[in-house]
Design a protein that fits this description.
alpha/beta, manganese, binds magnesium ion, D-malate dehydrogenase (decarboxylating) (NAD+) activity, 2 domains, IsoCit/isopropylmalate_DH_CS, 10-stranded mixed beta sheet, Isopropylmalate Dehydrogenase, 11 helices, 40% helix, magnesium ion binding, 12 strands, binds 1,4-dihydronicotinamide adenine dinucleotide
């Protein structure tokens, strides 16, 4: 019998990153052991804010070439109290996403069995979304500058870039994502009333691409009205696509509405598969709980499941998520979900449950 082998790069980085990534590796090893038809090989990269403080660089010279050889990347979180956030974000996370053209950022959200949404009327099954975020340009293109520093007339620009190429590929990806889900329903979010150039291009391209997807039902929302709809009518939504900035904000709202930022995953995909894709929990390094053993590992488990899916191991991924949800259903959850156990207890419970699911 031939076993499939995948080489996974891990970048635990800062704060609770190392705690949740080691929990994720423990669960993934158990999944591959029980499944028996594929092997996972992990290689850790110690790139972090500590590396930056010692060497002046997050990624050493030649680092990206090494990273490129792996089948996927499992990323923890980056950010330290004594490094400005724009330095850490651009130094590590965006320094991987952009050259690897991981242009589709996919953020599924749902209410797990046994957990509660802060929305009074939303229960398991009522909120089940996938947010597709443009991940290569838009408001985070990094274009702009600052002049006259420190003067009263100091000026800064932050220029958004919307290229037809990138808008087309992300909208196409979003329609494809919607098509694969049972409801085949897509909401395209823009702000084309106020942002009358780039956002109008989005609207036009959406209408063009929609013609190739006559089986997908789609509608349009302005981003401000979208926040209301997410809160007041979560059942009316399924797949959502928006720009880099808008989807960044909407997906944090989505995670909170589903119960906690501690369960939400995110995939940075290169749909052309020329480069490895990167999988991470949505949350950051959470300094306030670092080292306390209370970080919720579920977001990392879910992102690890998304990684298995992307690698083609969908059956193993499905079983893994079944085990995770069985554990939340039994109330074995961390404090952010109203429970009282720690990272280790949740991780061990998932590993034990996997024995039953496989
Ligand atoms: P954060 O996500 O680190 O924390 C926000 C709140 O959620 C905190 O109260 C934290 O304790 C809680 N939380 C986060 N993850 C949790 C988990 N797994 N279990 C239980 N509770 C959890 O966001 P914050 O505080 O805005 O940022 C902290 C640092 O992380 C900053 O340096 C920021 O730049 C960085 N960051 C990095 C990200 C990344 O690597 N992709 C994403 C977001 C923030
Ligand atoms: Mg964010």
């Amino acid at each position: 019998l031939q076993t499939r082998k995948y080489s996974i790069a891990t970048i635990p980085a800062d704060g609770i990153g190392p705690e949740v990534i080691s929990a994720g590796i423990q669960v993934l090893c158990k999944v591959s052991e029980l499944d028996g038809s594929f092997e996972l090989e992990f290689e850790e990269y110690d790139w972090s804010s500590d590396t930056y403080k010692k060497t002046g660089k997050y990624i050493p010279d030649g680092g990206l070439d090494k990273l490129k050889k792996h089948d996927a990347i499992l990323f923890g979180a980056v950010g330290a109290p004594d490094v400005p956030d724009h330095i850490s974000l651009w130094g590590l996370r965006l320094a991987i996403c952009q050259p690897f053209q991981q242009y589709a950022n996919v953020r599924p959200t749902k209410i797990f069995r046994g957990t509660r949404s802060p929305l009074r009327n939303a229960n398991h099954g009522d909120l089940d979304w996938v947010i597709v975020r443009e991940n290569s340009e838009g408001e985070y293109a990094g274009q702009g500058g600052r002049s006259h520093r420190g003067q009263p007339w100091e000026t800064a620009t932050e220029v958004s870039i919307f290229s037809r190429h990138a808008v087309e590929r992300i909208l196409k990806f979003a329609f494809e994502t919607a098509r694969k889900r049972p409801r085949k329903l897509l909401t395209v979010v823009t702000k084309s009333n106020a942002q009358r150039n780039g956002m109008v291009l989005w609207d036009e391209v959406a209408a063009e691409i929609a013609k190739q997807f006559s089986d997908v039902k789609w509608d349009k929302m302005l981003v401000d009205a979208m926040t209301c709809r997410m809160v007041l009518d979560p059942k009316s939504l399924d797949t959502i696509v928006a720009t880099n900035l808008h989807a960044d904000i909407l997906s944090d709202l989505a995670a909170a509405l589903a119960g906690s930022i501690g369960i939400a995953p995110t995939s940075n995909l290169d749909p052309t598969r020329q480069n490895p894709s990167m999988f991470e929990p949505i949350h950051g390094s959470a300094f306030d709980i670092t080292g306390k053993g209370v970080a919720n590992p579920v977001a990392t488990f879910w992102t690890a499941g998304e990684m298995l899916n992307w690698l083609g191991e969908d059956e193993a991924a499905r079983k893994m998520m079944e085990a995770v949800e069985a554990v939340t259903e039994r109330g074995i959850v961390t404090r952010d979900l109203g429970g009282s156990v720690g990272t280790k207890e949740v991780t061990d419970a998932v590993c034990e449950e996997l024995g039953r699911v496989f």
